[in-house]
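Example record

One chain of 173 residues, shown exactly as stored in the release files.
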Amino acid sequence: MTLVPLPVPAGPIDDAPPYEPWEVQTAVLAAAGAAGRRAAAWVRSLPPPPLRLPVGDWLAGELPAAIETAMSGLDPEECDHMAPDGRAVEGTGGVDAATMSTLAAVPVVLPEAGWLAPDRQARLLAVASAVTGAVRLIAQDPGTAILHGLLARLCAVLDHAARPDGSAWTPVQ
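Predicted C-alpha cells for this chain:
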C-alpha cells in the first residue's frame, strides 16, 4: 500500500479565519472551572490513609491539582485541526499531557487506596472519567460541547460524583 500525503492547500499558510468565541463560551467554561474546583476540593477532603503511603500523598496533592488544571484550562482553540501541510493534528483541549497522564492513572492507582470505601473509590473513578471526557469533548468538537450542553452535562456528572454529602456505602454482612 502506498501512502501519498495530501497536497498543501493553496494560499498563504495563515489564511484560516481568526477564531471567534461562541456567545455562551465564557460562561460555560467558567462553570466548568468552578465544577473542577469543587471536585478537587472533594478529593482533598477524602480521609488520608492510616499510615503514610505514596498513593495518599498523590490523592491529596497531584490528583486534585490535575482536576483543577484540566477543568480550568479547557480551551476550544486547542481542538483537532489540520496542519498547514495537510496532517491531522489531535487537539489537546488546552490540557497538557502530564495532566492527562495523572488523570489516566486513577484506575491503576485506585486499588492501592484500600482505606477508602468502595463508594468513594467509584466516585473518584467517575470524577477522573468526567474530567477526561470534558477535555476530549473540547478537543474533538468544542462547538457541540459548548452550544448543545454536552460540557454542562459532564459538569453535572462531576458535581454529582464529587458531592460532599455522599454517604459512604458499607457492604451488608
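Notes: The longest strand covers residues 81-82.
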